[in-house]
């Protein structure tokens, strides 16, 4: 009708003239990317989204690293599979674009007596996906679809509440320089509220300071709950071998003795998981995940393969010892299988995830936290009622974005 057309025209004009709502997302991992994607679906009002991350690239714990020996080699050393209970519109979009493919790897335990035991339906669903470009490429694909600005290599270290009629927050980097003023703030990491921040950087946790400056009891309560989230830690060693074309020698002969692509050695004090990522030329790749107990023993070793080592001067100390201990554990495992750990042809990389995975039972049992009164939202895999996963992180970001739009 003429009336409905006029109303539609009025809404379009108002949207065009309305100042955009500026939203800052701190964290370029799964929840940060899904939040940005969901915000990009909003057509009712103009929004601008800027994403910040202290790492050199996107992905968070769905991380992929380039080898220093060959830029043609990428190694996934964080989350190695995306498993979902159902196809959300976001996951469906990734699948339709072929950013993700069905995960076809095998998984099982190696019992203490050396007996392999395959694990069927380990993830509790048959909707399991991987990416040929590494898992961080999945997160990059989400940001590409969202078409938002992402500023990596930027450590946000302070939040200042704005006092104008629009409210909001001014963000500052590690050098104290302002990176912009925003109407809404989305935080996807607990580190900004955790005492771990102080142990790493020496400053008071930025979110704790922000809560004090704002005088908001709601924000103070949210920050306190984030401080209560506990994490397991994990060291990762990336082992790589350059393979000639049609290589069928010692490297492949031994790596093929692993009974599964993902092996969990039962009772091993050092290794929690051995992941055979590739045995196809031009590279063979095996990734070692440590136990939490081993990682706690070496908690001051970040490894040159991680971002934290660039920021903390002592991060390289002890790297050789921790890495060698994990390689020796891998050699012992291979010996139990009647093989050996082949001599490396490329330098191994060590990385430490200080906040690897929220401990089950200490995860916040809500999808996300959105505080309209202070224009702050929190998302991440530390929200939800089950074990942390990429799906939980993605869903948390989606939920937070929807609630933000409803609150504007």
TrEMBL record:
Cross-referenced InterPro entries, in alphabetical order? FAD/NAD-bd_sf (IPR036188)
Which Pfam family name is an example for this entry?
NAD_binding_8
Q: Gene3D superfamilies from the xrefs?
A: 3.90.660.10, FAD/NAD(P)-binding domain (3.50.50.60)
* Designated name of the protein: Amine oxidase domain-containing protein
């Amino acid at each position: 009708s003429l009336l409905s057309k006029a109303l539609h025209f009025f809404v379009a004009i108002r949207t065009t003239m309305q100042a955009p709502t500026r939203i800052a997302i701190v964290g370029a991992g799964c929840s940060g990317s899904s939040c940005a994607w969901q915000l990009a679906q909003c057509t009712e009002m103009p929004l601008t989204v800027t994403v910040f991350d202290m790492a050199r690239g996107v992905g968070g714990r769905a991380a992929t690293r380039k080898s220093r020996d060959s830029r043609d080699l990428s190694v996934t050393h964080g989350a190695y599979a995306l498993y979902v209970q159902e196809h959300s519109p976001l996951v469906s979009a990734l699948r339709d674009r072929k950013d993700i493919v069905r995960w076809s790897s095998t998984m099982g335990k190696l019992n203490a007596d050396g007996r392999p035991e395959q694990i069927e339906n380990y993830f509790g669903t048959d909707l399991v996906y991987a990416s040929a470009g590494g898992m961080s490429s999945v997160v990059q694909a989400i940001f590409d679809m969202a078409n938002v600005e992402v500023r990596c290599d930027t450590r946000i270290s302070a939040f200042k509440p704005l006092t104008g009629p629009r409210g909001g927050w001014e963000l500052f980097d590690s050098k104290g320089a302002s990176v912009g003023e925003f109407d809404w703030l989305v935080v996807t990491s607990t580190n900004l509220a955790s005492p771990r921040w102080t142990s790493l950087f020496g400053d008071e946790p930025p979110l704790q300071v922000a809560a004090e400056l704002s005088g908001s009891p709601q924000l103070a309560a949210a920050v306190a709950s984030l401080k209560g989230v506990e994490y397991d830690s994990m060291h990762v060693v990336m082992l790589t071998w350059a393979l000639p074309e049609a290589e069928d020698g010692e490297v492949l002969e031994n790596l093929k003795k692993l009974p599964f692509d993902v092996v969990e050695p039962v009772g091993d004090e050092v290794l929690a998981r051995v992941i055979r990522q590739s045995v196809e030329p031009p590279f063979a790749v095996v990734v070692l995940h440590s136990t939490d107990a081993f990682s706690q023993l070496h908690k001051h070793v970040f490894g040159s393969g991680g971002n934290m080592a660039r920021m903390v001067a002592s991060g390289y100390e002890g790297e050789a010892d921790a890495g060698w201990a994990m390689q020796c554990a891998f050699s012992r495992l291979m010996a139990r299988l009647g093989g050996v750990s082949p001599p490396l042809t490329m330098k191994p990389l060590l990385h430490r995830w200080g906040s690897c995975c929220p401990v089950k039972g200490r995860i916040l049992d809500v999808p996300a936290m959105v505080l309209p009164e202070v224009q702050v939202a929190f998302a991440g895999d530390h929200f939800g009622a089950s074990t942390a996963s990429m799906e939980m992180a993605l869903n948390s970001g989606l939920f937070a974005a929807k609630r933000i739009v409803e609150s504007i």
